[in-house]
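hey can u run this one w/ adenosine-5'-triphosphate bound, need the structure tokens asap thx
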Amino acid sequence: MVAPPDNDVLWARALHFKHRDGTPALSGVSLEVREGEILAVSGPRGSGKTTLLRCLSGLVPVQSGEVWFNSVPMHTMGTLTRERLRRERFGWIDPAPVLVPELNVWENTALPLMLRGTGRRQAKTAALEWLERLDVGTRARRRPHQLQQAERQRVCIARALAAAPSVLFADEPTAPLHRSDRAHVLRTLTTAARSHGITVVLATHDPDTEALADRTVALLDGRRVKTVHLPPVSGTATTEGRAACSLSV
Ligand SMILES: Nc1ncnc2c1ncn2[C@@H]1O[C@H](COP(=O)(O)OP(=O)(O)OP(=O)(O)O)[C@@H](O)[C@H]1O
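ok here u go:
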């Protein structure tokens, strides 16, 4: 086992993943994420973006290959150690908002901090600050069901940032937002991440989202590819309607 370079916060090698029903989701993906970097993972639906983020974040154990976080091997960790690492160092944003229905908005936002041992008052202050930045400060005392879907997603983003993770994994984080709101919310997320030194790994199939990242890693059918744009050639059955081909890297 060779340790990764020091300046990579995440370092993955030859990741393979198959779902329980045998569906292959990753076939030998390797990548590195530098400290403070905003990395977009792009690709069409079903290309393996979510599965890659789940493996990198320790949400699912690696079946084959290696994942290192700050030069510590995650692929050899037991479940409890991995869960503690995730709780203390990682944040996660799902493509649809997931909140605790019994808690109000600020309590939901403060929850990851309180689970880590931060006092209620300090956690509430941080939660309220981030809710303001995400333009949902006025909803702080409401329950999730009293909010619109797009507002609930803003709360999830505030919750992820309030906990000041080392790495934030965001899986299509602006999917439930109106198109006109997406750029603003994404800019808030990326600006906050940059100013707080949070590394971001962002799954997306939206070119506007990719444009806000420092670098993009493209996936297709569970493999890393580099997309080569070719002019469409009309009139042939095999090339009609295709503007790009992908080369494995
Ligand atoms: N729970 C599951 N059981 C079986 N196959 C799955 C499961 N989840 C995903 N898959 C399959 O694994 C492959 C990779 O899926 P994944 O969700 O990682 O891709 P994705 O790029 O994130 O797609 P999307 O943009 O639709 O979320 C796809 O073929 C998908 O159909």
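The pocket of adenosine-5'-triphosphate is lined by residues 19, 21, 23, 25, 43, 45-51, 203 (CB under 6 Å). anyway lmk if its weird
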